[in-house]
Amino acid sequence: MSPSKLEAGTNGGNAKESSSSESKAGRNFVLALFAGIYAALTGCLAKAAVSMEGNLDRRLDIDRQLRRYEKTSKACPKSGVVRYDFAHVASNDPAEDEHQEFQLPVPSGYWSFFGLYDGHNGGKTSKWLASNMIPAVSGALADLYSRLVSSDPAPSEDQTIPSPHFSDVEQVFKTTFAQLDDDMCYAPLETVFASNSRDVAEDLLGPACAGSCALLSFYDSHSRLLRVALAGDSRAVLGRQRVNDEGDIKYDVYVLSTDHNGINQTEVDRLDAEHPGENVCQGGRVLGMGISRAFGDARYKWARDLQDKLKKGYLGKLPLPEVKTPPYLTAEPDVTEIEVQPGDFLIMATDGLWECLTSEEAVGLVGLFKEAQGNRFGTREPVGGYPPDALPVWMAERDHTVRYKQWGAEKRFVMTDVNAATHLLRNALGGADKDLTAALLAMKTPRSRKYRDDMTVLVVFFGEEDGRGLSGRRPKD
């Protein structure tokens, strides 16, 4: 074979090999392309599966979030209290609410104290109150009872246990609340100015610069009297079982506190009288604040020259221009009294709950809870949940709550929890509408604050039997 033919033959073979390689490369490209598309589709489906699984996990996480801080406490024997349930759901981060419960043995039986402190502008005031409120009030009450015993030179056997008048107990609450607020807002000032230290000022005046409402209940097992003191817009409500003419069990509602805010006309009139011509209350608010009574909030209490001094040398805030004749806010509480009857229960909650539920709905829900706890076979829940008018309570004519309207949702309630406080929280945050509950709980600060507030709830169950063998008296009007 000549070299030319050999060269031609070689070139022809290379051409065939080149064509085969190009065809194989094309097939490989197509296979790679389809493999890539398949991988992408698989990835999308996997992500979708993860997303659906995550959504399921989020639904399951509703229970974890609602029950995260719940606690059921068995009360001391012979205290007149059977148990008390606590639960909390935060909106602020960190949460600003605090609580405190304490049962104190005394010669006549037990004193039980239950406190809720709804903080704002931070949690320093509420934390301070949780450490100081009950020790201060219990000590002042002990002094009152001691004075009553020592004032009678020859007490009879029936008089060895003092029974102070309501006005005396009321004064103890008012005096102690005022003293605590002074200890917070004014007592540290001398030390701050003597130190000439911004760090000391920040440390000692932190509770004064933040603020908090305070709701405190005091139950005396001997007299079976419950006293409730409030400064702010938290609320205490008592539920009492009654059988109607048809033999059905329903619950009466006794609201034991009055909201202190710019909507309460009594508070508006008080502030107008104290600050004539200043238009303190506008649009339902007090100089921009939602409440008219609180601990701390010293910007609304300190004199302007004092605030100027703190601003100049101690990192204080600029005085508000509308603050002309302080103080505007007060920590003085309103105090109420009721005699507890067998089977009563007390609901205490910060205002976040009452933005969602009426007092009647809350009592009806706890009444439903009690029935479910006492029925070992369970209860049959209506399809879609309980409407408000199905609750075992005499309902109010109007519903003034705002949150369900804001959410564009209808109230439907469920019974799934074994903690009464968690039961209230769940139904305040959507109830039977699990999608709404999941959405509300998924929100984080600051967005969550537009749709829900911190919620702290305490439910106290009193004994079913009257340990004194006496029938209870009707509550004071």
UniProtKB/TrEMBL annotation:
Residues spanning the membrane: 29-50
Gene3D superfamilies tied to this protein: PPM-type phosphatase domain (3.60.40.10)
Region described as Disordered: spans on this chain: 1-21
Highest taxon of source: Eukaryota
CC terms in the record's Gene Ontology section: mitochondrion
Keywords from the UniProt entry: Membrane, Transmembrane, Transmembrane helix
Domain named PPM-type phosphatase: residues: 83-462
InterPro entries (alphabetical): PP2C, PPM-type-like_dom_sf, PPM-type_phosphatase-like_dom
PROSITE patterns the record matches: PPM_2 (PS51746)
UniProt GO MF annotations: [pyruvate dehydrogenase (acetyl-transferring)]-phosphatase activity
Identification of the protein by name: Protein serine/threonine phosphatase 2C
Organism: Dichomitus squalens
